[in-house]
Amino acid sequence: MKRHLIKPRADYQKKIEELGFDFHGDYWREEAYYSFSASEIDSLEVATAEAYRMYCDTAAYLIEEKPELLERYLQLPAEVVERIRDSWDRDELSLYGRFDFLIDREGVPRILEFNADTPTSLLEASVIQWQWKEEMFPQADQFNGIHEGLVASWRDIFPEGGAVHFAGSLEDHEDTGTLQYLASTAMEAGCSTRVLDVNDLILNDGRFTDPSGEAVERCFKLYPWEWMVDESPDGCLAEVQWIEPIWKLVMSNKAILSTLFELFPDSPYVLPCYMSRPRQGRFCKKPVFSREGHNVSVVDLREWEEVVRLAETPGDYNRGAYVYQQYVEPVSYEDRYPVIGSWIVGGEPAGMGIRENRTEITDNLSEFVPHIIL
After folding, report:
1. Measured between alpha carbons, how far is 290 from 373 in angstroms, rounded to an integer?
2. CB proximity list for 248: less than 8 A, separation 6 or greater
3. Per-residue pLDDT for 364 more than 70?
4. Are 253 and 226 in contact (CB under 8 A)?
5. Reported pTM
6. Given CA atoms 260, 265, 271, 272 in this order, what sign does their dihedral have?
7. Integer Cα distance of 176 and 103 in angstroms
8. Mind giving me the DSSP string for 206-236?
9. With bands split at pLDDT 50, 70 and 90, how would you rate the model's confidence at 292?
10. Measuring CA to CA, how many Å separate 198 from each of 1, 193, 345?
11. Cα dihedral angle (127, 193, 172, 99), rounded to 10 degrees?
């Protein structure tokens, strides 16, 4: 894995905006790219597939054997836990998710977290960086079957086609762009689509309708399950086939990292992680429901003393439980710290995107940098 400097395309802003990427700002960067060997990509694919298998096994353990932990750590009402169990037992299909890996100094991908419910950085990882590669390195390859995987996954979920609503915050340009892109992949798979603001969904007698009065029977929501639980527990129980299914709530929080370590302590990809404060060592301290690197800090624990090494990042998630995940020294590439976002689509590894930051904690100001396989 190497980082290279390169001259950006002179008109790249216009080109990516024509593909729907009009929310890029300074987030998409073409001054550099990363190169990987084929064996490095093979290792990442293996790690991604194994990580997803372990997450599925851990979710099964929590749902089937330890539902009380879901109520305790995630503060879920009993009826929502039962709805999760029903969703799991019916094997409701998942569309996608994104693992965040840190490649350690030995080249091993270490799981930082799994963005299982509402992962973004999707359009840039699939279409945008592929366009960049085709122009800049047409003879090279790229770990990127995301678009084709999404279309195939929609066909698996809805083989008969039909109507699918897409709901999210349309006040947010990134959410809107992501919804529109995902709707286009569903249309390519033979579905009809309608994009609307999540606040325009109307709940009445256990059913949702859209503003036109049409029943919402199948809906992709770019809206976190934990927010829905807090704001509308009855909405979580509504007669809707949600994408992502509600069992993904079990995977989409940091508390699962401690159970993952409990079940797979010998996996090279799993970092030690605890729900209670360890006595000593260096750890990354993360809120259970933190997003985009908010309220994350790095601390040195010495008996009962907690020395802050990297101060907690700003955010609104500094309430409730934290997990302590063992700290891994990141590798610096020209004073940048990359995190690999490895995508699972339809249950299979599908491609990756790279975000890099000037600090060791990846947040919503991190920049997306393309890659190739040499």
Report:
1. 32
2. 94, 97, 116, 117, 225
3. no
4. yes
5. 0.94
6. positive
7. 31
8. TEEE-TTS-B--EEEE-S-HHHHHHH-HHHH
9. low
10. 40, 15, 24
11. -50
